[in-house]
Amino acid sequence: MAADHRAGTVADEVDVAYGPYDDQVLDVYRTTAPTRRGTIVFVHGGGWTSGNKETLTAGTFGPVLAQLDRGFDLVSVDYRLAPAHPFPAALDDVSLAIDWVRAQGAVHGVDT
């Protein structure tokens, strides 16, 4: 299913595992633009202690989604939260997600 890159955008793939833990999942949004320009790895806010990839608001996520129309693919990442997973777990997860984009992104149709 192609993504609708306007209001109400839905991911092309949801909860794709990028690591061995349940919290290490991401959503994939693919551009439909004729020229591909790269992939944005979006990390939600929350100070590493709260939030998830589903709590994004139009004010923060909307401008990022607008990049889909400009040729960028998008990967929105969940990561393990503190204090249950102390520093540097979240940073390790984001690094692992970036490694996933490089190694597996093409399989999922995103620009590596």
Write the layout of secondary structure elements.
Blueprint: E1 13-17, E2 25-29, E3 38-43, H1 58-65, E4 72-77, H2 89-104
Parallel strand pairs: 3-4
Antiparallel strand pairs: 1-2, 2-4
Short description:
The protein is an alpha+beta fold and 112 residues long. Helices cover 21% and strands 20% of the residues.
Descriptive report:
The two termini are 21 Å apart. Helix content is 21%, strand content 20%. A four-stranded mixed beta sheet has the order 1-2-4-3, covered by helices on one side. The protein is of the alpha+beta class. The radius of gyration is 14 Å and the shape is globular. It contains two helices and four strands, in the order E-E-E-H-E-H. The model is unreliable at 1-7 (pLDDT under 50).
Oligomer kind: single chain
| Strand fraction | 15-25%
| Rg of Cα set | 14 Å
Largest sheet: 4 strands, mixed
Strand order of the largest sheet: 1-2-4-3
* Termini Cα gap: 21 Å
Helices and strands, in order, run as EEEHEH
Q: Which geometry do the CA atoms define? A: globular
How many β-strands, per DSSP?
4
